[in-house]
Automatic annotation (TrEMBL):
InterPro entries: Atg22-like, ATG22/LtaA_families, MFS_dom, MFS_trans_sf
SUPFAM superfamilies in UniProt: MFS general substrate transporter (SSF103473)
Protein name according to UniProt: UMF1 family MFS transporter
Subcellular location: Cell membrane
Residue span, Major facilitator superfamily (MFS) profile domain: 270-464
Length: 464
C-alpha cells in the first residue's frame, strides 16, 4: 500500500474581479439545483407518484382492481413505479454522460450548455404540477427528463470548477459551492414542508400542496440558473480541447474523441485509481443516505414527521460541514481530509447500528455527524479529482466521474436489500455497508496525488 501523498501547494494568487464575479455566479448553480434534489428527489416525488399510480391501478367506482399497472405490456406494482423511474433515469444518464462531456470540451462557452440542460430539467420539474388524477405516466416522463437533464448539467458545472479556480483554491471553492447547495436545499424544503404540513392555511388540499411544492422546486431551479449563465459569460472564451486529427468534425466527432480519451486513460493511472476508490466509498455514502429513512421508520420506529425533521437537520449541518472540510483540506490536504471523513462515516454506521428503537435524540446526534461529513467528502472528492484530470479534457473526465458513480450506485442498495432479506433485519444490512468505506479508504490511500497532478499538467497524451 502506498503512502498518502500531498503535492506542494501552489501559492495562491488574488483573482481578478471578473474571475471573482464568475466564481460567485458559479456558486449559485449549486444553490439552484439542490432545491430540486432535496424537495423533489429526496422527499416528495416518490411518495406522491406512488399515490397517483395506486389511484390509476384501483380507480374508485370500478370493480376488479388488480393492483398493477401495464408498462410496455408488463405488469408493474404501483409502489415500484417511482423506483423503476429513477433506475431508468440513472441508466440513461450513465449512457449519455460521456458524450456530453466530449461535447462540452469542444465548446468555448460551457455556460450555454449549462443553461440548456438546466432549463430543460427545470421546465420538466415545474410541469410536475400537472401530475394528478391518474396521470402517473406524466410523472414518469417528466421525472426522466428532469433527472437526466440535471445529471448532464452537473457534468458541465463540475468542469466549470476548473475555469473559475486555480489548483490552490479548488478545495475551498468546491466546498463553498456544496455549502451553497445545502443551504438552498434547506431553505426551499423548509418552506415546502410548512406548506405540505398545513395546506389548509394556504387554501390548498393536501394533494395540491404537494403539486405546488414540486412546481416550486422547478421554478427555483430555473430562475436561479439565470445567475450562473449570465455571470459565467464574462469569462474569456476557453481554449477547446486539442483534438486528434482523426477526431474530425461534425456530430460524430465527440464520439470519436471520447473513444480516444478512453484509450488515453492508461496514461493517467492515478485518475483510474481515484475513480475506483470514489465509486466504492461514494456508493456507501449514497446507500446510507437513501436507506436512512427506511431504517429509521422500520427498524427504529420513527414517524414521518421525525424523519422529515432529520432531513432538515442534515441539510442545515451539511452547509457548515462543507465549509469546515474546505478549511481542513487547506491545512491537511484534500486526500487526508477525505480519508478522515471516511473514518467518520464508519462511526456513523456503527452508531446507527447501536441506536435503540425509539431513541430519537441519539438519532438526531447521528444526523448532525452525517451532515458534517456528507457535504465535505463530496465537495473535496470533486476538487481532488479536478486536480488529477488532464488539462483541456475536464468535462470528458468529469463525465466519466458522474457516469461511473451512477453506473455503480445500485450495488450498495443491492447489498443492503439482500442482507436485510436474508437476516430479516436492517441492522446487519447496515453493518454490511462498512465494507464500502473500508475498501474505499484503502483504495484512496493508494492514489499518488503528486504524480497524478504532474500527469494532469501534461494534458492529454497521444494514444500510441
Amino acid at each position: 500500500m502506498g503512502a498518502v501523498s500531498t503535492p506542494a501547494p501552489t501559492p495562491a494568487t488574488t483573482p481578478d474581479p471578473t474571475l471573482l464575479r464568475a466564481r460567485r455566479s458559479w456558486y449559485v448553480y449549486d444553490w439552484a439545483n439542490s432545491a430540486f434534489v432535496t424537495t423533489t428527489q429526496t422527499v416528495l416525488f416518490a411518495p406522491y407518484l406512488t399515490v397517483v399510480a395506486r389511484r390509476a391501478a384501483c380507480p374508485q367506482g370500478t370493480d376488479g382492481c388488480t393492483n398493477t399497472l401495464s408498462v410496455l405490456g408488463l405488469p408493474v406494482a404501483p409502489g415500484s413505479v417511482a423506483l423503476y423511474t429513477i433506475t431508468v433515469a440513472t441508466l440513461l444518464s450513465a449512457l449519455l454522460l460521456p458524450f456530453v462531456g466530449a461535447l462540452a470540451d469542444r465548446t468555448r462557452h460551457r455556460h450555454r450548455l449549462l443553461g440548456g440542460f438546466a432549463w430543460t430539467g427545470a421546465a420538466a420539474a415545474t410541469a410536475m404540477v400537472a401530475v394528478g388524477g391518474d396521470r402517473w405516466w406524466l410523472g414518469v416522463v417528466l421525472a426522466l427528463v428532469a433527472v437526466v437533464s440535471l445529471t448532464l448539467s452537473l457534468v458541465v458545472n463540475d468542469a466549470l470548477l476548473i475555469d473559475v479556480s486555480g489548483p490552490a483554491e479548488r478545495d475551498a471553492v468546491s466546498s463553498r459551492g456544496w455549502a451553497a447547495g445545502y443551504l438552498g436545499g434547506f431553505v426551499l424544503l423548509a418552506v415546502n414542508l410548512l406548506l405540505v404540513s398545513t395546506p389548509g392555511t394556504f387554501g390548498l388540499t393536501e394533494e395540491w400542496s404537494v403539486r405546488v411544492s414540486l412546481a416550486s422546486a422547478g421554478l427555483w431551479w430555473g430562475l436561479f440558473t439565470v445567475v450562473p449563465v449570465l455571470g459565467l459569460r464574462r469569462l474569456p472564451p476557453r481554449p477547446v480541447l486539442d483534438l486528434a486529427p482523426e477526431a474530425g468534425h461534425g456530430l460524430t466527432a465527440p464520439v470519436r474523441q471520447l473513444a480516444r480519451t478512453l484509450k488515453g486513460l492508461r496514461h493517467h493511472p492515478q485518475v483510474l485509481r481515484f475513480l475506483l476508490a470514489y465509486l466504492v466509498f461514494n456508493d456507501g455514502i449514497q446507500t446510507v443516505v437513501s436507506a436512512s429513512s427506511v431504517y429509521g421508520q422500520e427498524e427504529l420506529g420513527f414517524s414521518s414527521a421525525q424523519l422529515l425533521t432529520t432531513v432538515l437537520l442534515v441539510q442545515a449541518v451539511a452547509f457548515l460541514g462543507a465549509l469546515v472540510f474546505g478549511r481542513l483540506a487547506g491545512r491537511f490536504g484534500a486526500q487526508r481530509t477525505v480519508l478522515g471523513g471516511l473514518v467518520l462515516w464508519i462511526v456513523v454506521v456503527l452508531g446507527a447500528f447501536a441506536v435503540p428503537r425509539g431513541a430519537f435524540t441519539s438519532w438526531l446526534a447521528l444526523a448532525v455527524l452525517i451532515g458534517l461529513v456528507l457535504g465535505g467528502t463530496q465537495a473535496l472528492s470533486r476538487s481532488l479529482f479536478s486536480r488529477l484530470v488532464p488539462a483541456g479534457a475536464e468535462a470528458e473526465y468529469f463525465s466519466l466521474y458522474q457516469a461511473g458513480e451512477r453506473g455503480t450506485s445500485w450495488l450498495g442498495t443491492l447489498v443492503f436489500g439482500l442482507v436485510a432479506q436474508l437476516c430479516g433485519s436492517y441492522r446487519p444490512a447496515l453493518v454490511a455497508l462498512l465494507a464500502f468505506f473500508v475498501v474505499g479508504a484503502v483504495l484512496l490511500v493508494r492514489v499518488d496525488v503528486a504524480a497524478g497532478v504532474q500527469q494532469a499538467q501534461r494534458g492529454t497524451d497521444p494514444v500510441r
